[in-house]
Amino acid sequence: MTDKKSDDYRMGDGEKDPFMGMPPPPPRSASPPLSLHKIDNSPGLSIVAYCMASISMTVTNKYVVSGTYWNLNFFYLAIQAIVCILTIMACKQIGIISNLKPFDNDKAKKWFPISVLLVGMIYTGAKALQFLSVPVYTIFKNLTIIVIAYGEVLWFGGSVTPLTLLSFGFMVFSSIIAAWADIQSALSGHFEADTSTAISTLNSGYAWMGMNVFCTASYVLGMRKVIKKMNFKDWDTMFYNNLLTIPVLIVCSLLTEDWSSDNLARNFPEETRNRIFIGMIYSGLAAIFISYCSAWCIRVTSSTTYSMVGALNKLPIAVSGLVFFNAPVTFGSVSAIFIGFVAGIVYAWAKIRQSASSAAKSILPTTQPTMSASAASARDAIKG
Fold first, then answer.
1. Considering the domain boundaries, does residue 382 fall inside one?
2. Per the record, where are the segments of Basic and acidic residues compositional bias (predicted)?
3. CB burial readout 240-275, b (16+ within 10 A) else e
4. Is the separation of the CB atoms in 76 and 64 below 8 Å?
5. Which helix (H) or strand (E) holds 35?
6. Local confidence band at 171 (pLDDT 50, 70, 90 cut-offs)
7. CA-CA-CA-CA torsion for 114, 78, 57, 170, nearest 10 degrees?
8. Is residue 16 domain-resident?
9. In CA terms, which of 141, 182, 225, 286 is 20 to 30 Å from 118?
10. 280 falls within a domain
């Protein structure tokens, strides 16, 4: 590499003829109107890509697990993880992913408990999505934010502002309305099954959703605690998460799920078999798409914009359930979706204000702050 300072010196050291004209500018290379560079730095496209990836992931999961006789959730999640790992390794081989560290046994042992928590999170999420509609699942998923927030208060010294508490109130209120609307729809016969079966299905869904909330919070809080010690980057986290869950998921599938030919035929009916397989493969790819689009959105916009997009994205995900899966459209369900949407916006705004307040406090003061006598004594003791 040449030294920039020495280059500048040689250009002005008097050896060049001062009467020589400036060299003609190099010809401009013709570039296509929409180059890859423009796409890669487009805020609008990154936001659309992130929204489409998350919506398609939820819809695909719901499609795969919503079969009448579906009972192979561990197998489905294992396929997701395998597809994800194969895709990551292929991207590393062709140079798309360059910052993935080699596999380390010691790191794998330390990360394995986090992967077990991940299995609990994705399994309970799949079971909840199997019994609940997409709008209700999306609304109840907001409750995870509350558990994580108070977990951070207890374990990491976080804080909850009044505006954040307001958003939590909206989240709880929207969940209550969603549950009430679902129960009313079941009692009114809007579901295909009879009333008692529909109520039993909803109760199972709420039970799995409750377990998913706590499993998700445990996974997120545990990962936050361990990830700082491991010094993992995004691709490292995804690689270890998926790789270490594969043996757990396969063992759980072999031990707890029915692998008889009759059960396989019920889970994969001939008329929808190919579509289910395509959905299972796509769900593994979608996990990578979401991770990439999240990083892309943050890079070309800001973390603030990303937070707001995540809040606004709740609405199209919930609406997609109404469109693709014929979920009951009632005043209660629409109200729950809207209130949950407002709760997400209020929460995102609360986090933005909290981050701005923290940044303002971290700025160096321009005046010497007033110090109490005890603090002054402690300072003098340290100096001495």
1. no
2. 1-18
3. bbbbbbbebbbebbeeeeeeeeeeeebbbeeeeeee
4. yes
5. none
6. confident
7. -40
8. no
9. 182
10. yes
Q: Cβ(144)–Cβ(217) under 8 Å? A: yes
> CA-to-CA distance for 92 and 198, rounded, in angstroms?
47
Rounded Cα–Cα distance for residues 79 and 280 (Å): 7
- Angstrom distance (rounded) from CA 210 to CA 212: 5
Quick: pLDDT tens for 265-286.
999 988 888 999 999 999 888 8
Query: Residues near 225 by Cβ (< 8 Å), separated by ≥ 6?
Result: 155
Q: Determine the residue type at 355.
A: S
Q: Tell me the H-state helices in 69-142.
A: 73-93, 105-131, 134-141
The dihedral built from the CA positions of residue 256, 216, 142 and 147, taken in this order, carries a sign that is positive
CA geometry: angle 180, 183, 186, nearest 5 deg: 150
CA atoms lying within 13 Å on the CB side of residue 222: 18
Which DSSP letter does residue 163 get? H
Q: Work out the end-to-end distance of the chain between its first and last CA atoms, rounded to an integer number of angstroms.
A: 49
- Indicate the number of domains in the chain: 1
Amino acid letter, 150: Y
Write out the residue range of the structural domain in which residue 91 sits: 43-355
Q: CA–CA separation, 121 vs 115, rounded Å?
A: 10
pTM: 0.73
Classify residue 36: in a domain, yes or no: no
Q: Span 169-189, mean pLDDT?
A: 82
